[in-house]
């Protein structure tokens, strides 16, 4: 679109410039006047082109520096900024590789730059979001974890299970979550590791309604991982990442979402053609997607065109935007660490 806009402007400018030159020549104006007119219109064209490039391509600030905030984890995941401004993130301690650690949740304070333990054991939490009331919603995975979705009241500290079984069988390993503007929660349920038996027949996507009803809304989405809802509430994005057993499918799948929270008309939005697909994802107010992949954060427009790339020194697992004073920052979990980087965009979050 940029090339089209600039080309159109050039045609209009050249046409107008030619008219002015012809008029000046007819009126026998001196060559200096003609030259000034040409330079003036060239200046306008250059300025206009710069503005278009700035609005489209400078989502990523070329002068922004990636900052390491924490590097004391085992396998960090699921960053989410709470109403209190803290950045909460999971530390998935794989049982066989961590000496049987039981999982942790950390919280980073942007004001003091300190990171402290929020909860341990974590129930093997993975994805974290906050609901419309400011309570924490956690996807608890397998590998000695809870295999359920939990809500924690951030005032009392007490938690309740809001999804634990489907048709009387345990979930596989809830992975990541999103929420719509009515307060309905959606989550993915793959299985990557863990000794527990797999009881569900598919790796699905589920919706938790306000009355607590659990519905499997998608049965075929490869190995579902990251999940997002578009700012206009019309689309649901699901990231499929190649799993060792279940699927070889690496893509972002786009579903239409109706007013009742049902998904239909699936479409391959971005196909990675055999390359490793995205893990967690974030979305900004314009509907641009930020995908955590093996070497960095890939930015795509709402039309599926790649807009930019942020290289990360460790393998990214998830990404989120900040709130309030940190609203122009991306927070990224990768390897054993937490990073942040400034960006010229603001994240979309469902509100009442």
Task: Throw out a few tags for this protein.
38% strand, Neuraminidase, mainly beta, disordered N terminus, 2 helices
Report on this structure.
There is one protein chain. The chain is mainly β and 352 residues long. The protein has two domains: 2-57, no CATH class; 67-342, Neuraminidase, CATH 2.120.10.30. It has two helices and 26 strands. It has helices spanning 2-26, 31-57, and strands spanning 67-70, 76-81, 87-91, 104-109, 114-119, 125-130, 136-140, 148-152, 159-163, 165-166, 169-170, 177-179, 185-189, 204-208, 214-218, 224-229, 235-240, 251-257, 263-271, 281-283, 289-292, 296-300, 306-311, 316-321, 329-334, 337-342. A hairpin with a 6-residue loop joins strand 8 (148-152) and strand 9. The chain is globular, with a radius of gyration of 24 Å. It starts with a helix and ends in a 10-residue tail after the last strand. Residues 1-14 and 41-56 have low confidence and may be disordered.
Helices and strands in order, then pairings?
Elements: H1 2-26, H2 31-57, E1 67-70, E2 76-81, E3 87-91, E4 104-109, E5 114-119, E6 125-130, E7 136-140, E8 148-152, E9 159-163, E10 165-166, E11 169-170, E12 177-179, E13 185-189, E14 204-208, E15 214-218, E16 224-229, E17 235-240, E18 251-257, E19 263-271, E20 281-283, E21 289-292, E22 296-300, E23 306-311, E24 316-321, E25 329-334, E26 337-342
Antiparallel strand pairs: 1-26, 2-3, 3-4, 4-5, 6-7, 7-8, 8-9, 10-11, 12-13, 13-14, 14-15, 16-17, 17-18, 18-19, 20-21, 21-22, 22-23, 24-25, 25-26
Helix pairs in contact: 1-2
